[in-house]
C-alpha cells in the first residue's frame, strides 16, 4: 500500500523533473534532459500502475480514498486542505494522463530533437503533467482549480512555445483570455457551491448535493445556477460553443503539445469536472439539457468546419472540438461513463492522429498544407498505417476503440430519459461528417499523386522514437474499446461496471425485466447498424470525392460557393466575436478606461497631489529672499508671537 | 533702592533699540553692534533679576554670555572682513546670494 499512502509522489515526480530541467537543462546535453523528463514521467506512470493494483484491493467502503496533507486555506468558516483522493474515475483519468503523457514524452524526444529550447519544452511538458495530475487527484474544488489554472498556464506557455512567431504568441494569449471567461464562471460556481453547502470538499459537497432537492424541469434554482456556472468553466477548458475559438488557434504550438494537451488530456478536464460534479447536474434538468445541447451543437458545428480545412492540424483541431462535443452530449444525457469512455478512447486515437500528423509534417519538412502532400503512403508506411488505424477508430468502424464509445453515446442519446431523437440525429449526422473529413485527410495526404516537388522535399520516415509511440497508441486505439465489447451481445460493459460506484445512477441503461432487456438490446442493435452505416457512408463519400473523382471537390465548391465560403471562413465566428465583443471592449478600454479613468481620474489624482505640493512649495519659496534682514524680521515676528502666546497663557 | 522694574524697562528699551537697529541698518558692522546691544540688554535683565531674587545664577550666567559674545565677535568680525574683501561692500542688501 505504498503508493496509496504516498499519493503525493504521483504529481510531485513530474514537478521535480520540470524544476530540474527548467533550471539546469540549458547547460545539459539532450540525453540528460531526456533522462529526467522521461524518467520522472515514467516513474509517475509506474506509480499509477502500482496504485491501480493497490486500489483494486481496497475495500469498497474506503473508496474514495482521501489523503489530507496539510490545511491550506482557513478563513472564517472556509476550510480548504491540500488533499488528494482516488476513486475509480480518478483511476481511469490517472492511467490515461500518465500513460498517454509518457508515450507523448517519448515521441517528443524525436520530434523536438532539432528545436531550440529543448529543455524548456520538456520543463513545460513536465509542469503540465504535474498540474494535470493535481487536477485529477484533487479532493476538493480548490485543489482541482489549482490544477485547472496550472494546465491553462502550461497550455499558454506551450502554444506560445515558438514565441518569436507573432501568430504563436497571439494564439497563446487568445487561449488564455478565452479561458479566463470560462474560469470566471467556474469561480462563480465554486462561490455558489460554498454558499449552498458551506464546503468545497467533494466528500462533503457531492453527498450533500445528492440529498438536496432537485430543481423542477425548466426552473432556475440554486442547483441549476451552480451547474450552469460550472458548465461555463467546462466550456472554456474543453472548447465548447461558445468558447471553442481558442482551440483551433492553439495548433500554433508544437505538435506533441497539440496531441497531449489540446487533444488527449487538458481539454478533457472540463468533461472530467462535469463528470465529477454529475450529482449537481443531475439535480437540474435545465443544466442537463444545456450540457447535451451544447455538446451536440458543438459536435455538429465543428465537424462541418472540419470538412473544408486544408491544414492537417486544423482538421484534427476541429475534429477534437467535435469529439469533445460528443463527450458533453454523453454527459448531458446522463451517460457519464460513456462520456469518460469516449474521453479515454479519444485520448488514444486523437493522440495517435496528432502524433501521426506530426510525423507527416516532420517527413514533409514542416509542410502542413494537405494540398501540397499526396501519395505519402509508400514513403512513410508506419505513419500511414498507424494514422489509418486512428482514422478507422475515430470514424467508428466496428472493432476499433472509437466505435464502442461513440456507439454507447449515440444509443444513450436515443434511449436515455434525458436524450431525444433530435440529439441522436445530430450525433449520427456528425459521425457521418467525422468519417468523411477524416478519410478526406487520409486520402489527400497519403493517396493519389504527390503534389509537392519531389526533388526539393525528401520525404523520410520518422525515427524509431517517434514511430514506437505511434504503434503503441495504434494498438490502444484498436483494443482500447474492447472493455465494452461484451455489451454488444447483451454482456457486461466492463468499463461502465468499473465506474459504476462513482456514477451510481439507477434507472439509466438498466432494463429491469428480461423482455425489456431484449427490447433494449434489439433497439441498440438497430442504432448500432445506423451508426455503422453513417461511418461507412462518410468513408464512401470521401473515397468517391477524393479517389474516384478527384475533380468533384472543386466542382462542388463552385456550385455551393455560398456554404463553402461560410465553412472556409469557419462561420466567421472569430470575425463576429471581434466585431461584437473584442472591438467594443477595446474601444471602451481605450476611450473610457484609458483616456478617462486612467488619464483623467487616476493620473489626475496623482498629478493633482504633485501639483498642489509644488504650488505650496512655490509660495513658501517666496520667503527665502536671501535678504538677511528679512530673515531677522521673521525671527522677530516669531519671537513676538511666541512671547505673546506665553504671556496670554500666563495672564489668562 | 531702585526698583527692579526700572532695570527691566531699560533692558527692554535697549533690546528694542537693538532689534530696530538690526532690522533697519544696512551696514553689517552696525548690525553687529546692534546684536551686542541686545546681548547686553539681556545681561542687564539677568543681573537685575539675580540681584532682586538674591540668587547668583543670573550673575554667573552673564559671564557666560560675555564669553560667548567675545567668541562670536571674533568669528563675526572675521566674516565681516572677508565679506568686505570679496564683495567690496558691507551693504547687507548686496549680500543676498542665499536664495534660489
Distance between the termini of chain A: 90 Å
Q: What's the architecture of chain B, going by CATH?
A: Orthogonal Bundle
How many beta-strand runs of chain A? 2
Helix amount of chain A: over 70%
CATH topology-level fold name of chain B? Helix Hairpins
- Beta-strand fraction estimate of chain A: under 5%
User: What's the order of the H and E elements of chain B?
Assistant: HHH
Content of β-strand of chain B: under 5%
Tell how many strands the DSSP assignment of chain B holds: 0
CA-CA gap between termini of chain B: 56 Å
Assigned CATH class of chain B: Mainly Alpha
Q: Using only CA atoms, what is the Rg of chain A?
A: 30 Å
Count up the helices of chain A. Answer: 26
Major sheet of chain A: 2 strands, antiparallel
Mean pLDDT of chain B: 90
Helix content of chain B: over 70%
Cα Rg of chain B: 17 Å
Can you walk me through this structure?
The complex is a heterodimer of chains A (652) and B (100). Chain A has 652 residues and is mainly alpha-helical. Chain A has 26 helices and two strands. In chain A, strands 1-2 form a two-stranded antiparallel ribbon. In chain A, a hairpin with a 2-residue loop joins strand 1 and strand 2 (78-86). Mean pLDDT of chain A is 90; it is low at 506-511. By secondary structure, chain B is mostly helical. In chain B, 78% of the residues lie in helices and 0% in strands. Chain B contains three helices and no strands. Chain A binds chain B through residues 621, 624-629, 632-633, 636, and chain B through 19, 22-24, 31, 92-93, 95-100.
Amino acid at each position: 500500500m505504498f503508493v496509496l499512502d504516498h499519493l503525493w509522489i504521483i504529481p510531485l515526480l513530474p514537478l521535480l523533473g520540470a524544476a530540474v530541467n527548467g533550471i539546469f537543462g540549458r547547460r545539459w546535453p539532450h540525453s540528460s534532459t531526456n533522462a529526467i523528463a522521461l524518467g520522472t514521467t515514467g516513474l509517475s506512470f509506474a506509480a499509477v500502475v502500482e496504485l491501480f493494483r493497490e486500489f483494486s484491493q481496497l475495500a469498497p467502503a474506503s473508496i474514495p480514498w482521501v489523503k489530507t496533507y496539510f490545511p491550506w486555506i482557513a478563513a472564517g468558516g472556509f476550510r480548504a486542505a491540500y488533499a488528494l483522493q482516488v476513486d475509480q474515475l480518478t483511476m481511469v483519468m490517472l492511467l490515461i494522463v500518465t500513460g498517454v503523457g509518457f508515450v507523448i514524452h517519448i515521441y517528443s524526444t524525436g520530434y523536438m530533437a532539432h528545436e531550440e529550447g529543448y529543455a524548456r519544452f520538456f520543463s513545460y511538458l513536465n509542469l503540465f503533467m504535474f498540474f494535470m495530475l493535481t487536477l485529477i487527484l484533487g479532493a476538493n474544488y480548490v485543489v482541482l482549480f489549482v490544477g485547472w489554472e496550472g494546465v491553462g498556464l502550461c497550455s499558454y506557455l506551450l502554444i506560445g512555445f515558438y514565441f518569436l512567431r507573432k501568430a504563436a504568441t497571439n494564439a497563446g494569449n487568445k487561449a488564455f483570455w478565452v479561458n479566463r471567461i470560462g474560469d470566471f464562471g467556474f469561480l462563480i460556481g465554486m462561490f455558489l457551491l460554498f454558499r449552498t453547502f458551506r464546503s468545497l470538499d467533494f466528500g462533503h459537497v457531492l453527498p450533500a448535493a445528492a440529498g438536496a432537492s432537485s430543481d423542477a424541469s425548466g426552473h432556475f434554482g440554486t442547483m441549476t445556477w451552480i451547474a450552469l456556472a460550472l458548465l461555463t468553466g467546462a466550456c472554456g477548458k474543453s472548447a465548447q460553443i461558445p468558447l471553442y475559438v481558442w482551440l483551433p488557434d492553439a495548433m500554433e504550438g508544437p505538435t506533441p503539445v497539440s496531441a497531449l494537451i489540446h487533444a488527449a488530456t487538458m481539454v478533457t478536464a472540463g468533461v472530467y469536472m462535469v463528470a465529477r460534479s454529475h450529482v449537481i447536474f443531475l439535480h437540474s434538468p435545465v443544466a442537463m439539457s444545456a450540457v447535451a445541447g451544447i455538446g451536440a451543437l458543438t459536435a455538429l458545428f465543428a465537424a462541418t468546419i472540419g470538412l473544408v480545412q486544408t491544414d492537417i492540424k486544423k482538421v484534427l483541431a476541429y475534429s477534437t472540438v467535435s469529439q469533445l462535443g460528443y463527450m458533453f452530449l454523453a454527459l448531458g444525457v446522463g451517460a457519464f461513463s460513456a462520456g469518460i469512455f469516449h474521453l479515454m478512447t479519444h485520448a488514444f486515437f486523437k493522440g495517435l492522429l496528432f502524433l501521426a500528423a506530426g510525423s507527416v509534417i516532420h517527413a514533409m519538412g514542416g509542410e502542413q498544407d494537405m494540398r501540397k502532400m499526396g501519395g505519402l503512403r509508400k514513403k512513410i508506411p508506419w505513419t500511414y498505417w498507424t494514422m489509418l488505424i486512428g482514422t478507422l477508430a475515430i470514424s467508428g468502424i466496428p472493432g476499433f476503440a472509437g466505435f464502442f464509445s461513440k456507439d454507447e453515446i449515440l444509443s444513450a442519446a436515443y434511449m436515455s430519459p434525458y436524450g431525444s431523437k433530435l440529439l441522436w440525429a445530430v450525433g449520427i449526422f456528425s459521425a457521418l461528417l467525422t468519417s468523411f473529413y477524416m478519410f478526406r485527410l487520409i486520402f489527400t495526404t497519403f493517396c493519389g499523386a504527390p503534389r509537392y516537388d519531389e526533388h526539393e522535399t525528401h520525404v523520410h520516415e520518422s525515427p524509431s522514437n517517434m514511430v514506437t509511440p505511434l504503434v503503441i497508441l495504434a494498438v490502444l486505439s484498436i483494443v482500447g474499446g474492447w472493455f465494452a465489447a461484451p455489451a454488444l451481445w447483451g454482456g457486461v460493459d466492463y468499463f461502465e461496471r468499473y465506474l459504476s460506484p462513482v456514477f451510481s445512477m439507477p434507472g439509466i441503461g438498466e432494463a429491469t425485466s428480461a423482455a425489456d432487456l431484449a427490447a433494449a438490446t434489439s433497439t441498440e442493435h438497430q442504432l448500432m447498424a445506423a451508426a455503422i452505416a453513417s461511418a461507412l457512408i462518410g468513408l464512401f463519400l470521401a473515397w468517391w470525392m477524393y479517389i474516384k473523382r478527384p475533380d468533384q471537390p472543386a466542382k462542388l465548391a463552385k456550385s455551393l460557393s455560398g456554404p463553402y465560403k461560410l465553412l472556409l471562413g469557419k462561420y466567421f465566428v472569430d470575425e463576429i466575436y471581434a466585431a461584437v465583443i473584442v472591438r467594443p471592449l477595446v474601444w471602451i478600454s481605450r476611450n473610457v478606461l484609458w483616456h478617462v479613468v486612467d488619464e483623467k481620474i487616476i493620473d489626475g489624482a496623482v498629478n493633482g497631489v504633485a501639483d498642489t505640493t509644488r504650488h505650496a512649495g512655490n509660495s513658501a519659496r517666496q520667503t527665502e529672499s536671501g535678504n538677511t534682514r528679512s530673515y531677522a524680521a521673521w525671527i522677530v515676528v516669531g519671537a513676538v508671537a511666541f512671547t505673546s502666546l506665553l504671556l496670554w497663557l500666563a495672564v489668562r | 533702592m531702585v526698583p527692579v522694574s526700572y532695570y527691566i524697562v531699560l533692558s527692554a528699551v535697549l533690546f528694542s533699540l537693538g532689534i530696530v537697529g538690526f532690522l533697519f541698518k544696512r551696514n553689517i558692522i552696525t548690525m553687529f553692534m546692534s546684536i551686542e546691544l541686545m546681548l547686553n540688554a539681556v545681561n542687564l535683565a539677568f543681573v537685575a533679576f539675580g540681584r532682586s531674587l538674591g540668587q547668583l545664577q543670573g550673575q554667573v550666567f552673564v559671564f557666560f554670555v560675555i564669553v560667548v559674545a567675545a567668541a562670536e565677535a571674533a568669528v563675526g568680525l572675521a566674516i565681516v572682513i572677508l565679506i568686505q574683501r570679496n564683495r567690496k561692500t558691507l551693504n547687507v542688501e548686496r549680500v543676498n546670494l542665499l536664495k534660489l
